[in-house]
Design goal:
With about 550 residues, this protein is an alpha/beta fold. The protein is built from 13 helices and 20 strands. It has 3 domains: about 100 residues, no CATH class; about 160 residues, Alpha-Beta Complex (Aspartate Aminotransferase, domain 1); about 240 residues, Type I PLP-dependent aspartate aminotransferase-like (Major domain) (Aspartate Aminotransferase, domain 2). The strands form 5 sheets. A 7-stranded mixed sheet has the order 10-16-15-14-13-11-12, with helices on both faces. A 6-stranded antiparallel sheet has the order 2-1-8-7-6-5, with no helix packed on it. It starts with a strand and ends in an 11-residue tail after the last helix. This is Aspartate/prephenate aminotransferase. GO terms for molecular function: pyridoxal phosphate binding; transaminase activity.
Length: about 550
């Protein structure tokens, strides 16, 4: 069946395009709804479609033994030099087998719409979209989070608790003196005393017994991790840049900002728990990838690339590729009995000025000061000089008073003691959260050995909540925030159907917050599973065996 529909050509003139095929029993051209690609309804020769020509009508579809209703919707279809208005149909019955899966889920449609970016506006790039934490927070605002945040358990924000109540940790400054120097513009590469302190810390913890040492000229201070990554991206030459899936959500937008390199996604094997191995790095370099970007420890999986594996990766990259190591979670290491040891690529560098290894870390995670926005990059002097220069037009440099206040925090012995206390406390919280989740029936193929994240598999849950977006939606109704796993499948909305993503059935939850917040969030999980009648039969028995955890300082 065909009918005439209106379209608008590039001059803005409204015209008619005759004989646009609209039958659901034929392959409709790939539609673009509000600028996004979606699949056409599958070809189904066994069905008959009744189409009426009047616009904005509810149509009836007779398929086999059932009768279902479909609502007409307008779709923008970009074809060559003009935009044609087409029709598609959204099922009122989620069981209809020929309506594509995303259309059956309001939260999936909402996600896809957000990740096509903002509506076109003068001077605004319409392709910019929200990162995971921003998007989830915006959805939580719609449910009252902005008005009553104290009633919510935010397990989505990737931030550690910032209180001074962790036993063994040093007390953070409550006030900061502002020197006369602090009133002035600071160097875009950071003040020399802090650069010296960072270099000394890494030499003491990671360069003992090695001839090549870091100096202050190997360090650039940046206003937070994202700013540091953007500076790095700005100075890269023409190259293929390999990044892994899943990984840190902000890489998604950073990688799309610059045209001086081509980002190449490297999917990791779910059967291997999304681990990085040297064979995969070798394969990518042989294919022409000359820059590798990754986090270690890994966000969102909570896994660490082991010291021997990391050394092999660095050996493969040496003289062949630039390695960018995001080490913001390096302090959260539970693989060495919480002895304060920090795993870093700095251990395996032969020459700090010859090995093309850039390490980024800061006060944000392991010093639990995300609000200070003080971070650093270590690397060869020529890289650091370029990073300092581009700071003059990208961000203007880091807050000088906070840089001055950070210097005494980086004394090597003080940091070692701090990391030991940090690791013991966060391992305790990890074990508490995993224990409660296991009692609820969640299964773990491995125990996270780093970070403060749990990459939670939902596949065993009822179908209506066994994907990250719909589970997230259920959490909002219980005043709990998590991050759907789809956000860590970098740029999925432009690469594939959301339901085909290997991250689709996961959420990332953080055990960074205080213990009372963790308990509140897990109580919300429990209520969700009760509503869907999917708690284990012996849950009540196991629940009574779990330790009661009240307040911040209680250890389960």
């Amino acid at each position: 069946m065909s009918r005439e529909v209106d379209y608008t050509d590039i001059s803005g003139t409204t015209r008619q395009a005759p004989n646009i095929i609209l039958s659901l029993s034929q392959q409709v051209p790939t539609a673009i709804r509000n600028g996004r690609f979606t699949r056409p309804p599958p070809n189904n020769p066994d069905t008959e479609t009744i189409l009426k020509s009047s616009p904005h009508t509810t149509y009836q579809y007779n398929g086999g033994t059932s009768t279902e209703l479909y609502e007409e919707r307008s779709v923008r279809y970009r074809h060559e030099e003009y935009i044609t208005t087409l029709l598609f149909f959204q099922s009122f019955d989620p069981s209809a087998n020929f309506v594509f899966k995303e259309l059956n889920s309001a939260v999936h449609l909402q996600f896809r719409e957000a990740h096509e970016g903002h509506k076109p506006h003068a001077g605004l790039d319409p392709s910019r979209a929200s990162t995971g934490v921003v998007w989830t927070t915006e959805r939580a605002y719609e449910h009252g989070f902005a008005e009553e945040p104290h009633l919510w358990a935010n397990l989505g924000q990737g931030a550690p608790e910032v209180d001074d109540e962790i036993e063994g940790c040093f007390e953070r400054p409550h006030t900061i003196d502002v020197s006369m120097t602090g009133r002035e513009y600071g160097p875009t590469a950071g003040i020399k005393p802090l650069r010296e302190a960072v270099a000394h810390l890494y030499n003491e913890h990671h360069r003992q017994g090695q001839e090549s040492k870091y100096t202050w000229e190997n360090v650039c201070i940046v206003p937070g991790g994202r700013a540091g990554l953007i500076r790095i991206a700005a100075v890269l030459g023409n190259a293929y840049l390999g990044f892994f899936i899943p990984d840190y959500t902000a890489y998604n937008e950073m990688l799309s900002l610059f045209r001086n390199f081509a980002p190449i996604p490297i999917p990791l094997d779910r059967g291997d728990h999304f681990q990085i191995h040297e064979e995969k790095i070798e394969d990518e370099i042989r294919r022409g990838t000359s820059v590798i970007l990754t986090s270690n420890p890994r966000n969102p999986t909570g896994r660490m690339v082991s010291v021997p594996e990391l050394a092999k990766i660095q050996d493969i990259c040496r003289d062949r590729a630039t390695l960018i190591m995001d080490e913001f979670y390096s302090g959260y290491n539970y693989t060495t009995e919480c002895d304060g040891k920090v795993i870093s690529a700095a251990d395996n560098i032969d020459d700090v000025d010859e090995d093309d290894v850039l390490i980024i870390d800061g006060l944000t995670k392991r010093f639990r000061l995300p609000g200070w926005r003080v971070a650093w990059i270590l690397g060869p002097k020529e890289f650091i000089k370029a990073l300092g220069s581009c700071g003059s037009y990208l961000d203007g440099g880091t807050n000088v008073p906070f840089q001055e206040a950070a210097v005494p925090m980086l004394q090597p012995d003080k940091v070692k003691h701090e990391m030991k206390a940090l690791q013991g406390h966060f391992r305790m919280k990890r074990d508490y959260v995993i224990g409660r989740l296991q009692a609820m029936g969640f299964q773990f193929d491995y125990k996270p050995d780093s970070t403060f994240y749990i990459w939670l598999n939902l596949e065993h849950l009822p179908k209506s909540i066994n994907d990250g977006l719909n589970f997230f939606q259920a959490c909002l109704r219980e005043k709990v925030i998590v991050v759907p796993g789809i956000f860590f499948d970098l740029n999925p909305a432009r690469r594939r159907d959301l339901f085909d993503s290997p991250c689709h059935h996961f959420v990332r939850l953080s055990y960074g917050p205080r213990m009372d917040t963790l308990k509140q969030g897990l109580d919300g999980f429990e209520r969700i599973l009760k509503k869907y009648n999917c708690l284990p039969k012996d849950y009540e028995q196991h629940a009574t065996e779990l330790p009661v955890c009240e307040g911040q300082g209680q250890h389960p």
